[in-house]
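Writing this down once: the sequence line spells out the residues, with the fold written below as integer tokens. I am pasting one below:
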Amino acid sequence: MEEKTLTPQEQNREWAEEAFWTGHCHYLLQALALAMQRCQVWRLTETGDVFTILEMFDFAKSYDQEHPLKEGEFYRTTLEGAIGLCLHVEYQTHWLFTPMEPGEERDALLKELQTKMDAIETFYKQIHPEQA
């Protein structure tokens, strides 16, 4: 039986479906897409630095380009929105980002994030009034 060669779009769709069901992702940006549905603010595990969804997007995009994964490695997301790097097996996860703990600091960051997102939406509607 001949193996079918997938187009890049078909491969991406297949990876996205796999990531959705398993939490295993080939790219940090893909892991972020899953995690952001559960969490919008994370802490970098090693330093405690805070990243909002907007900062994570910029970080993940450049990180994927500069640090491609090796064969057998993958990113993993949890139901809570944590993101880790697995080196060949899931039980050896190096947690990179954990959801920020509840509290006043997180609430302030979420409020600031909402303000930025509202501004982006307003700007988008101004430049694309036909889609508003």
The mean pLDDT is 87.
